[in-house]
From TrEMBL:
Name the record gives this protein: UbiA prenyltransferase
Organism: marine sediment metagenome
Length: 82
């Protein structure tokens, strides 16, 4: 169970989530908004980042030459792909 969970986190690249949320948080800070009143907008952007990343990986997995996505899917086979 833990192994599949860690593979799920590896498949979901957290840097995509941060690349979406950091500009949102920066705009909240610069405009001096209350973060509690805009938490649902931030959650929506986080959901957008996660689903966009997952959809991108699903599309990339259709291409058998896409090595990076295959490595994320099966990290134990990454040595065979090198």
């Amino acid at each position: 169970m833990i192994l599949s969970m860690s593979n799920g986190f590896r498949l979901l690249r957290i840097e995509y989530l941060f690349s979406v949320l950091v500009p949102c948080l920066l705009s909240v800070y610069l405009n001096e908004y209350e973060i509690t009143s805009h938490i649902w907008i931030l959650a929506g952007f986080a959901f957008y980042a996660i689903t966009g990343n997952t959809l991108n990986d699903v599309i990339d997995m259709k291409d058998p030459d896409e090595i990076e996505t295959l490595r994320k899917k099966n990290p134990s086979e990454s040595l065979l792909l090198d």
